[in-house]
Amino acid sequence: MGASLTVTPMSRGFTEFDTEVGRCGIAWGDRGVTGVWLPGTRRLRETSPPTADVKDIIKAIVALLAGEHRDLSWVTLDMDGLPDLDRRVYEVARTIPAGSTASYGDVAARLGAPNAGRDVGKALARNPFPIVVPCHRVIGTGGEVGGFSAAGGVTTKMRLLAIEGSRASQASLFDGDGTHD
User: Is 24 designated active site?
Assistant: First the structure.
């Protein structure tokens, strides 16, 4: 892999696929992936056959969710229409390797806005590309889990971190107050 997604014109579509954590979904368009859904988040009415590039992305997501440390930064995302801050937060989050975590404050500092931890949390709560943009790897200051907007909330976040072998997954579900530090 390692190459970016190259989607041919008129190859827009969406499909669902099975993973270790349940049925996920992916949507794509002319400029890349337009959305990823975790189990319980969304059900698609019609699906489209995935292109070869999208099949590669699905294989990588399935492998990551099976516990393989995968870098999905090669996946091209179509972020048109997203606020600039969200795009910047997603780019920073994509640099956090599987099995590792960073705090909301760490992400804010990397953006040059060290006091914007709550804004980072809000941007991650709107993340249309979970797993590809690994928002689950961003935790509260001091190791608190923080929030998670996908179905299952913090329990899902903890499960994703455990699959990746992150030490943060060993924290109690009740650590922190659920706010974005």
Answer: no
